[in-house]
Amino acid sequence: MHEPALILDMDGVIIDSNPVHREVWTLYNRRFGIETDEAMQRRMYGRRNDEIVRDFFGEHLTAEEIRAHGAAKEQLYRETIGPMVNEALVPGVREFLQRHRSAPLGLASNAEPANVEFLLDAAGLRPYFRAVVDGHQVANPKPHPDIYLRAASLLGTDPRQCLVFEDSEAGIAAARAAGMAVVGVRTTHRDLAGVDLAIDDFNSPELEPWLARR
């Protein structure tokens, strides 16, 4: 039997980057006199940058202003996380990708294209992925299913034969809407509703036996 297609989100699944995103949003917003409270931080998880910028700065911004804020914040993020990319990878993810390199592997993230490219190159993970989808390749970001449906299409796999790894509520909702099974990774939230399996990281002992049973 063929292995199912395995599609991984990026932030919080491949790299435990959300603590750095929190730090950088706080620093960036403060430049404009905005104090980033916990509710704002939680709304950031799993969303595309244009949505986050509108939330933090207001709906009055032009499309160009939204792009500029997003680009500046993400440049600061890459400068901050750059020296520690490999240390920030979710434990066991590189070994997991190596073990399953024969399977159709995809990356599907709401993240900015520059961040996706940065991670794939800085961590040397690009060769593992047959399909890479970022938040700007689809009209509707997560929690809409578009990103995962595009990844399945690029992998040439029926969505029902895809297994998604996600850490956010928006991502889980997107995968479910696409008709895919979901493994929740507890890097960002301890309680993940609507998943078929929840793991702490890719070293969790229950992961490989569960995959083998599928």
Q: Write down the secondary-structure element order.
A: EHHHHHHEHEHEHEEH
Number of helices: 10
Most strands sheet: 6 strands, parallel
Instruction: Give start-end ranges of low-pLDDT stretches.
Output: none
Q: In percent, how much strand structure appears in the residues?
A: 5-15%
Could you explain how this protein is built, in words?
It is a single chain. This protein is an alpha/beta fold and 214 residues long. Helix 7 links the parallel strand 2 (105-108) and strand 3. Strands 3-2-1-4-5-6 form a 6-stranded parallel sheet, covered by helices on one side. The protein starts with a strand and ends with a helix. The chain has 10 helices and 6 strands; from the N terminus they run E-H-H-H-H-H-H-E-H-E-H-E-H-E-E-H. The chain has 2 domains: 5-16 and 85-213, Rossmann fold; 18-83, DNA polymerase, domain 1 (Orthogonal Bundle), CATH 1.10.150.
Structural features:
214 residues; alpha/beta; Rossmann fold; DNA polymerase, domain 1; 2 domains; 6-stranded parallel sheet; 10 helices
Layout of secondary structure:
Elements: E1 5-8, H1 18-30, H2 38-44, H3 49-57, H4 63-81, H5 85-88, H6 93-99, E2 105-108, H7 113-122, E3 131-133, H8 146-155, E4 162-166, H9 169-177, E5 181-185, E6 197-199, H10 207-213
Parallel strand pairs: 1-2, 1-4, 2-3, 4-5, 5-6
Summarize it.
This protein is 44% helix and 11% strand. The chain has 214 residues and is an alpha/beta fold.
